[in-house]
Design goal:
This protein is α/β, with parallel strands linked by helices and 427 residues long. Among the domains are: 137 residues, Rossmann fold; 150 residues, 3-Layer(aba) Sandwich (Rossmann fold), CATH 3.40.50.720. The chain is built from 14 helices and twelve strands. The strands form two sheets. The chain has a seven-stranded mixed beta sheet, sandwiched between helices. A five-stranded mixed beta sheet has the order 1-2-4-3-5.
Length: 427
């Protein structure tokens, strides 16, 4: 367990380093708020980082060692909260950045959590269900000392799901000798999950898109939407945007994208995905390379895949008037500067995709109380949180004459800084 060196945020700028991108935007917000350098260092630096080795017996009888991370960025406002992703390109800087983004995301929507994030370096597509279970359980036991409903509450992320959370919850519960449902969110309903959780991030993206469109004068029936991604964020987000009357003209998966300028039948596309596990072979649309999807003619672009998708290399060719970030960190700092000069409105990730952590908070509350809400109550409370938060970000951006992204950072960093100043420094 170690503390990340402050110099991480002061290294020469690398456009594709997510931690540096977070730190650069943080510094702009800190300048606007007039924070002193010492407080900046505290808020920029992760509280704890843990790297664990995960030895696993594979199905072929051989032993293989995986590497896992858990970063806890800030505890000031409450337990750390953040997902666990399984991917071959997971690295510590990425996990640090995602943990920090979770701190600001929780603060933007004003839920009493700090930020955390975890990851395991592996390729789930090459692993059996049994191997994934053994990885999850050994990883959980490796980070047990820093987990808990009052310490750190994981959730699903890229390539993890409610089954992963069920294994994590069970492993934790067996170690503490009691069933502890509140140690994770995004669980199956039968294990204390919340109604509305699966759809929450996509629903939040829809609400953020709808609110932003009102402000820039876009009407749903005149709006073409390109969605990068087709999972719980992209797929569900596309479905909900279509229900608002928008025309979804493109959707993608990790293998490629499909495009139909007359509009896609989103339920039909998602049914094809469920059956075939990929968009390949879908006959009612043109198949195009992933790289060209972001540059399609549209009014709204929803990058809902992974980081660093909109960069200095393609930002000039983006045709959308509005970008709503369903993914974490899809737009680099240099791309932001280009888009802002071109007058493109960007609803930042720490606001746009905060529906997931908001309903995760609802799930945690329900688990702690032992009393569960109807889906209508969950959705109504999510609507209230997202619309209130959007208005607060917009007001902050207007007050400081900044973009929505920097407005969101000012709001979030200011709230965390205030709590830290009130609590003081324990010595």
């Amino acid at each position: 367990m170690s503390t990340a060196p402050v110099t991480q945020a002061k290294a020469p700028m690398d456009e594709f380093n997510p931690f540096q991108a977070m730190a650069q935007r943080f510094d702009v917000a800190a300048d606007k708020l007039g924070l002193d350098e010492g407080l900046r260092d505290v808020l920029r630096t992760p509280d704890k980082e843990l790297t664990v080795s995960i030895p696993v017996s594979m199905d072929n009888g051989k032993l293989r060692v995986f590497t896992g991370y858990r970063v806890q960025h800030n505890f000031s406002r409450g337990p750390c909260k953040g997902g666990i992703r399984y991917a071959p390109d997971v690295n510590l800087d990425e996990v640090r950045a995602l943990a920090a983004w979770m701190t600001w995301k929780c603060s933007v929507v004003d839920v009493p959590f700090g930020g955390g994030k975890g990851g395991v370096i592996c390729d789930p597509r090459q692993l059996s269900k049994g191997e994934l279970e053994r990885i999850t359980r050994r990883y959980t036991s490796g980070i047990m000392d820093i987990l808990g409903p009052d310490r750190d509450v994981p959730a699903p992320d890229v390539n993890t799901n409610e089954q992963t959370m069920a294994w994590l919850m069970d492993t934790y519960s067996m170690h503490v000798r009691r069933t502890e449902t509140a140690v994770v969110t995004g669980k199956p309903l039968a294990l204390g999950g919340s109604k509305g959780r699966t759809e929450a991030t996509g629903r939040g993206v829809m609400i953020a898109t709808r609110e932003a469109m009102k402000k820039i004068g876009l009407k749903p029936e005149q709006t073409r939407v390109v969605v990068q991604g087709s999972g719980n964020v992209g797929g569900i987000g596309a479905m909900m945007l279509a229900r608002q009357g928008m025309k979804i003209v493109s959707i993608s998966d990790i293998y490629g994208a499909i495009h139909n300028d007359k509009g896609l039948d989103v339920p039909d596309v998602l049914a094809h995905l469920r059956q075939h596990k990929k968009l390949e072979g879908y006959a009612k649309a043109e198949h195009i390379p992933s790289a060209s999807q972001l540059e399609l003619d549209c009014e709204v672009l929803v990058p809902a895949a992974t980081e660093n998708q909109i960069t200095s290399k393609n930002a000039e060719r983006i045709k959308a008037k509005l970008i709503v970030e369903g993914a974490n960190g899809p737009t680099t700092v240099l791309a932001d500067q280009i888009l802002e000069k071109r007058g493109v409105t960007v609803v930042p990730d720490i606001l746009a995709n905060a529906g997931g952590v908001t309903v995760s908070y609802f799930e945690w509350v329900q688990d702690r109380a032992g009393y569960f809400w109807t889906e209508e109550v969950v959705n109504s409370r999510l609507e209230q949180v997202m619309t209130t938060s959007f208005a607060a970000v917009e007001e902050t951006a207007r007050k400081y004459s900044t973009s929505l992204r920097i407005g969101a950072y000012i709001l979030a960093v200011g709230r965390v800084a205030t709590v830290y100043q009130l609590r003081g420094t324990y010595a």
